[in-house]
Amino acid sequence: MSDLIEELLAGKHRALARVITKIENRHSGYRELVSQLHQHTGNADVIGVTGSPGSGKSTLVDKMAATYREQGLTVGVIAIDPSSPFTGGAVLGDRIRMASNVGDMDVFFRSMSARGSLGGLSTATTDAVKALDAFGKDKVIIETVGAGQNEIDIVKTADTVVVLVPPGSGDDVQMLKAGILEIGDVFVVNKADLEGANRTVQELQEMLEYRDGNIPRTIGHHGAGGMDSTTESLRMDAETDGWEPTIVETVANRGEGVDELLSVLEAHSQYLDESGERESNTRMRYAEEIRTLVREDVNDLLAEELERRGGLDAYVQQVLDRETDPYAVSDELVGPLADCVREKREE
Fold first, then answer.
1. Could you report the per-residue pLDDT of 195-207, keeping only the tens digit for each?
2. What's the CA gap between 70 and 76, in Å, rounded?
3. pLDDT classification of 5: cutoffs 50, 70, 90
4. Residue 188: strand pairing partners
5. How far is 90 from 165, CA to CA, in rounded Å?
6. φ and ψ at 169, to 5 degrees?
7. In the CATH hierarchy, which top-level class contains the domain 42-275?
8. Which residue in 39, 179, 222, 340 has a CA-CA distance of 20 to 30 Å to 279?
């Protein structure tokens, strides 16, 4: 294990791939791996890209990675795929989606399973991000599964959240009201050359203005004044007013608007550092990660105890026969654990 970590920290991609495989499959010793990698994290800029299926997330992420490479930055991409209900694996895990970056070892692409998580992410994703961070990747991009309104877990992992909205009749924009609208730092109207794009931008502007009480900034793919001027303008606005949601128009399959998008992402990264929000967001994410791990560990412990007592079916039958009730079953299983915790507390 120590050799594997040394190889990862030395920049060997094969070691990185092996570590992420251990993390995703929850192989024996993966927790020790992640624990030892933790001290080497905290340097990568983590970007989450979410949005409805068909909005062009994969194409945009591909172009983002290629543009970052042109800037001399290294990139890690984690694409979250739907989970198979039978195997738990990624349904599309073997697909090739990073066409512009094939053969470039400084763009590490990994497709991972959502494993049934309602938020579109799993604990393994957070651990894989740590591996990429410790490896030394400058940018880590998480492309979520695109499950719609439940896809809010990305805010617990990414520094900046990008929400893609395709041009359309307005149904996609209306869907955002249910929750995903609140998590976006940057909104991208992709396929902006299609009919309905202007209407989609206008609807987004109206909804974001209603959300925050401020007029959101819109950067069109037909010219935004260049990356440097865009970044400087957004940075100055953020200094006085805080970060306001920004709408960027792109045509990802032609690479249009990608430079402007990356400029906005850089401005948001600078804002997080200068405002102190990055530190507060990181504290919030670690707190949530600890809660999640505690819940998972306790669930595993209780599942083990339940199996030792003959499984759930016996208790279900007792409940059906009115010999006991669900609350009493829960008390019987959790009681010994609660007693042990209280005894330790009183020592």
1. 888 888 888 888 8
2. 15
3. very high
4. 164, 248
5. 24
6. -80, -5
7. alpha beta
8. 179
* 61-89 pLDDT tens trace: 999 999 999 999 999 999 987 654 334 44
Enumerate the domain spans of the chain.
Answer: 42-275, 287-346
Q: How far is Cα 202 from Cα 296, in angstroms, rounded to an integer?
A: 43
Where does the chain have alpha helices with state H?
A: 2-9, 13-25, 30-38, 57-70, 123-135, 171-175, 197-212, 227-241, 258-275, 277-308, 312-320, 326-346
Q: State how far the alpha carbon of 87 is from the alpha carbons of 83, 84, 103, 116, in Å.
A: 8, 6, 30, 11
**Residue 90, SS3 per DSSP:** strand
CB neighbour list of residue 135: distance below 8 Å, 6 or more residues apart? 8, 9, 11, 16, 76, 108
Angle at 35 between CA 30 and CA 39, to 5 degrees: 140
Residue type, 28: S
Both structure tokens of 175: 């869907």
Which token pair is 119?
């938020």
Only one residue has tokens 């499984």, namely 311
Radius of gyration of the chain (CA): 23
The answer to whether 104 touches 74, Cβ cutoff 8 Å, is: no
